[in-house]
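Supplementary notes for students who missed Thursday's class. We covered one full example, reproduced here. Read the sequence, then the structure, then the short commentary at the end.
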Amino acid sequence: MSSPVVSQPDVGVVVVAAGAGVRAGPGEPKQFRPILGVPMLLRALRPFTGHPEVRQVVVALPPGYAERPPDWLGKLRGERLEFVSGGAQRVDSVRSGLTALPDDATIILIHDAARPFVSRETIDAVIARARAGVGAVAAVPTSDTLKEVGQGPDRPTPRITRTVDRERIWRAQTPQGFPREMLRHAYAQLGGGTANGGAPSDDAEVCERAGFPVELIPDSPYNFKITTADDFRIAEALARELR
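Structure (token representation):
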């Protein structure tokens, strides 16, 4: 699905890249690590910085990196790409990115830097639904059998309490897109982000809590989130296939 042609780019993108990535093992932050010689963050940025409807991309980086980004990233800073310091939680990083986006970015996309294989088709589909006035989340239906477990002081290993019906279960991915005013109101209602079950895990949940409609956009499993060292090995194989 392609979004309609607009006279002026009006999509603002926040790329969340402020995490420490400790599960990826020792070394530099995982978002800066290469996949077949190309930094993961750069792979995640390219589909957005090259999109004709994108007004600006703001990257939320770990503390200190916004002022002193890696050379390969710093040289890309310009009118269409800017950096901000992220926060302790995802919602803090997104808030910082939203504040930095220009006022004429009326459609907002949020994307994880750890998802370097997002497709143009998915981006277009998310933009189109956000233009229609609803939240939109790239997602894939789960194919695994899901188990709910219970654990107590006399039970050191998890024990299954029930099998979850997977027919209506999807795995949320990114980008997630929203009309800017919807996202602004949702974050205003969120406040500090610790009430009603703690900090939300993604921006769709922020909007869900505020009562706004959010829809799923069928996505590709290739758009997976790189978290561990094993994920990097899978990403290398996928990058070879896609190049």
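Commentary. The chain has one domain: 11-242. The mean pLDDT is 91. If anything here is unclear, bring it to office hours.
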